TrEMBL record:
InterPro entries: NLP_P60_dom, Papain-like_cys_pep_sf, PG_Endopeptidase_C40, SH3-like_bac-type, TAT_signal. Keywords: Hydrolase, Protease, Signal, Thiol protease. Residues 1-25 form the signal peptide. This is SH3 domain-containing protein. It comes from the Bacteria. Belongs to the peptidase C40 family. Residues 184-300 form the NlpC/P60 domain. Residues 30-96, 103-171 form the SH3b domain. Pfam families: NLPC_P60 (PF00877), SH3_3 (PF08239). SMART domains: SH3b. Transmembrane segments: none annotated. PANTHER family: NLP_P60 DOMAIN-CONTAINING PROTEIN-RELATED (PTHR47359:SF3), PEPTIDOGLYCAN DL-ENDOPEPTIDASE CWLO (PTHR47359). PROSITE patterns: NLPC_P60, SH3B, TAT.
Length: 300
């Protein structure tokens, strides 16, 4: 079977669902998460491991947060507002079993903090189009409209939706979401360009601005960052610096299907790429694991 045929079979599996992606500039976690904790009741997030420590936020039953380690006397470390905070472990289910359902609404007052990298969607559900993303620790001011476990908020001048499961209450300063990121390096600028093309149709041989094929998108994205790369996937695979899979950075070119790759996308973080898949599809996010990985290159 040809490489294109193999991709046609696999592309039907590339459903993004509720996976979270990095928005704009990369945000490194304060610590590597070990488990996800799910609140079993309304519970505070504190600056230290004890009830005398300052309350910096809170969760309601069913909301999620990353637990990064143990503290003392029943307290655990959590990742919150791009730093380390503390919660009482007895109020977090970390087993992955018998988890409480996510909330259907939360209080409107105050700003909420995203506890994971989140997709921003055009409607209240994972079947709606992804129109952007929020980095973990972003501040979100919700409108008070809720549906199907999603909250409505204003994003880039439009009303959009985000999952309620990952919107913690915050009592301190927050970072507003960046609808128009200002990347700090060429790879991030290339990725920002690719992100702006989401939803545009695939067309073989197209180089934009209204349609793209996979290598045309990669070339246009890196051109927007001031780097000229070859036009064809197999030639792009020989350009720039070879990158190990474990060392991928935002914007790196990721290749698929054997030693002479026939498909390419731009690394978008969290094991995802943005790519132009095939005829009948549109520029989209998908998992690297959905296709046979061939290697990666960093053009600039």
């Amino acid at each position: 079977m040809s490489a294109r045929g193999r991709w046609g079979l696999l592309s039907g599996l590339a459903v993004l669902g509720g996976l979270a992606l990095v928005a704009g500039a990369a945000v490194a976690p304060a610590e590597a998460a070990t488990t996800t904790g799910v609140a079993t009741t309304t519970v505070n997030i504190r600056s230290g491991p004890g009830t005398g420590a300052k309350i910096v936020g809170g969760l309601v039953r069913g909301q999620r947060i990353s637990v990064t380690g143990t503290a003392s006397t029943g307290w655990v470390k959590v990742r919150f507002n791009r730093g380390t905070a503390y919660m009482y472990g007895a109020y977090l289910n970390r087993t992955g079993k018998n988890l409480p359902a996510g909330p259907t609404k939360i209080t409107v007052t105050g700003t909420k903090i995203t506890t994971e990298n989140l997709n921003v969607r055009s409607g209240p559900g994972t079947t709606y189009a992804i129109v952007g993303s929020l980095a973990e620790g972003s501040g979100v001011t919700i409108t008070g409209t809720f549906k199907s476990g999603f909250a409505q908020f204003r994003y880039g001048g439009s009303l959009r939706w985000v999952s309620l499961k990952y919107l913690a209450r915050s009592t301190g300063s927050t970072r507003p979401p960046a609808a128009t990121p200002t990347p700090s390096n060429r790879g991030e600028r290339a990725l920002a360009f690719a992100r702006a093309q989401l939803g545009k149709p695939y067309k073989y041989g197209a180089e934009g601005p209204n349609a793209y094929d996979c290598s045309g998108l990669a070339q246009a994205a890196w051109a927007s960052a001031g780097v000229s790369i070859p036009r064809v996937t197999t030639t792009q695979y020989k350009f720039g610096s070879k990158v190990a899979k474990a060392d991928l950075r935002l914007g790196d070119l990721v290749f698929f299907y054997g030693p002479s790759p026939s498909h390419v996308g731009l690394y978008a973080g969290q094991g995802m790429i943005i790519h132009a898949p095939r005829p009948g599809k549109k520029v989209e996010y998908t998992k690297i694991s959905y296709m046979p990985y061939a290697g990666a290159r960093r053009p600039g």
